[in-house]
Amino acid sequence: MSSRFARDSGGFTLLELLVVMVIIGLLAGYVGPKYFQQIGKSEVKTAKAQIAALEQALDQYRLDVGHYPATEQGLQALMTNPDNNTHWSGPYLKKAVPNDPWGKTYQYRMPGQHGEYDLFSLGKDGQVGGSDEAQDITNW
To answer: Is Transmembrane included in the keywords of this UniProt record (predicted)?
Structure first.
């Protein structure tokens, strides 16, 4: 009897290991997409927060200088004084102008088509339009 006990408690059978691997695979297949979907949502939230911060800096620039920077000056006018304007009191950002969460520059137009200026990111795909993670994130 003792030899049978030693033989039965020697380890897992191949069937038991396969069942465990299938269960782990099913869990990974269910949890993985949900996890990566949350990462995409956080990138969109980050872009919205960065656009809001850039809007505040642009508004402060306008209060000091009297107008928003021209399209040609772009968002760099928040960091360096364009045209040596005597009313410029920047830099208006603590750090350099950020790229969007996908590594692309934010688009800035003055005058804007949707307001005094347009500030936007083209999203993950870098193309106009889109949905979900590929949607454009705008200030309008």
So the answer is: yes
